[in-house]
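URGENT: need a sanity check before tomorrow's submission.

F., can you look over the Metalloregulator ArsR/SmtB family transcription factor record below? I want to be sure the sequence and structure line up before it goes out.
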Amino acid sequence: MDDDTRDDDTVFKALADPTRRHLLDRLFEKGGRTLTELESDLPLTRFGVAKHLGILEAAGLVVVRRSGREKLHYLNPVPIRVIHDRWIDKYTIGPASALTDLKTRLEESE
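Structure tokens as predicted:
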């Protein structure tokens, strides 16, 4: 198994959990959130949320910066984009161009 496949597997596994996707959504809305902020609307313990953040961090989806005593969490969208480019984009090129061609032909026939 090559490094790209291993990286993809880690990202897919991290994205498979709805709680982790929720955390990523929260970080997309506003980066630089503390653990306290992120746990505020989840029915989990602080330890549970920290564990999910650790999995996201290990997958490269979350980066952490320290600010004094606080750890601030930020979304890193690059691993998702890499998966998009590898697994989604190449499959949408054909159908998208076919629809564009159909639209052009229909407009020309009017």
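My own read: The helical segments are 3-15, 18-29, 35-39, 46-58, 78-109. The chain has a mean pLDDT of 89. If you see anything odd, call me.
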